[in-house]
């Protein structure tokens, strides 16, 4: 379990769901199964948990528990899958939006720039057709710059895109080493890792359609939640966190709370407490959790 992935903010996120022993819950990001196992530990015999993961590798972590239903699919299709299983309402949903340690540590998956010869893949679902290498090979300079700027918040996105286009005209950019070489002019030695992390984040988000999937998950989760049901979402970068924060505040992605004639808030959700971040002890034990932010909201 801990080899595959150490779950972030485990106790706080499960506590935040305020579990009912006989409730119906969704773990939208099963991964190594750490959060799911804790939910199951707290559920009674009549409780049910639906665990989603689009990566077939996650299935190796499934516990033998009749209360668990595994859904091999993207959480962006939450409502369709729940309807298929005859579920009209749920009592809570948890999503840990971080990339599993398993993915970062697998050279063949291409999620980490630690492996120079690693192929630039980055697909969460290996049945999907678009790889990071395909983005680098086929996107125009303008589109590459847009991806790097929007999803990586890269200050030199335009120049980086231009360098990639020039590099691919001479030799395909299909490995980490080749991408690092292409971007060398914009990678300052003292900031190289941070800049590469931004580039990899941008490519991963584009390949997996992560922002669109998160938007669809939040909308559908709100529809499925019973009044009093809870959302617990763990995010790892500002783009995700801003979307989650706005949605929990206002029920939309602009964060603008509507009011009735009398000035009463019309948000469908209410925040439970403030944003939760890892303790110093958790960061020391699990450094990959240090950027995690947990937000919890309850349907009104």
- Total helices: the number is 12
Give the low-confidence spans: none
Which strand order spans the largest sheet, edge to edge or round the barrel? 3-2-1-4-5-7-6
Structural class, by secondary structure, is: alpha/beta
In CATH, what is the homologous superfamily of the largest domain?
Vaccinia Virus protein VP39
Number of strands: 7
Spell out the helices and strands N to C: HEHEEHEHHHHHHHEHEHE
CATH topology of the largest domain: Rossmann fold
CATH class of the largest domain: Alpha Beta
Q: If you average the pLDDT, what whole number results?
A: 95
What is the makeup of the main sheet?
Answer: 7 strands, mixed
Radius of gyration: 20 Å
Features:
300 residues; alpha/beta; Rossmann fold; DNA polymerase, domain 1; seven-stranded mixed sheet; 12 helices; 14% strand
Give an overview in words:
This protein has a 7-stranded mixed β-sheet, sandwiched between helices. It starts with 9 loop residues before the first helix and ends with a strand. The protein is of the alpha/beta class and 300 residues long. α1 packs across α2 (34-42) and α6 packs across α7. The longest helix is centred in the middle third of the chain and has 17 residues, at 192-208. The protein has 12 helices and 7 strands.
């Amino acid at each position: 379990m801990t080899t595959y992935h150490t779950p972030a903010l485990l106790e706080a996120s499960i506590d935040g769901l305020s579990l009912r022993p006989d409730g119906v819950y969704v773990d939208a990001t099963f991964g190594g199964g750490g959060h799911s196992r804790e939910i199951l530990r707290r559920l009674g015999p009549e409780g049910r948990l639906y665990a989603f993961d689009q990566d077939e590798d996650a299935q190796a972590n499934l516990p033998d528990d009749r209360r668990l239903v595994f859904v091999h699919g993207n959480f962006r299709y939450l409502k369709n899958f729940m309807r298929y299983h005859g579920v009209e309402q749920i009592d809570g949903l948890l999503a840990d939006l971080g990339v599993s340690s398993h993915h970062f540590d697998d050279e063949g998956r291409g999620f980490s720039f630690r492996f120079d010869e690693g192929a630039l893949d980055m697909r969460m679902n290996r049945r999907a057709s678009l790889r990071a290498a395909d983005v680098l090979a086929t996107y125009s300079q303008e589109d590459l710059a847009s991806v790097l700027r929007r999803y990586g918040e890269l200050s030199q996105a335009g120049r980086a895109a231009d360098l990639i286009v020039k590099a691919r005209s001479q030799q395909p950019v299909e490995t980490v080493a080749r991408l690092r070489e292409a971007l060398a002019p914009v990678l300052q030695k003292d900031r190289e890792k941070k800049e590469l992390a931004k580039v990899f984040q941008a490519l991963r988000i584009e390949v997996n359609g992560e922002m669109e999937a998160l938007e669809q998950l939040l909308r559908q989760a709100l529809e499925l939640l019973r009044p009093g049901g809870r959302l617990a979402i763990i995010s790892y970068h500002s783009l995700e966190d801003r979307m989650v924060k706005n949605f929990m505040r206002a029920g939309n992605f602009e964060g603008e709370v509507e009011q009735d004639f009398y000035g009463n808030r019309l948000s469908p959700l209410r925040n439970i407490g403030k944003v939760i971040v890892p303790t110093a002890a958790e960061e020391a034990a699990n450094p990959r959790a240090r950027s995690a932010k947990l937000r919890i909201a309850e349907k009104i």
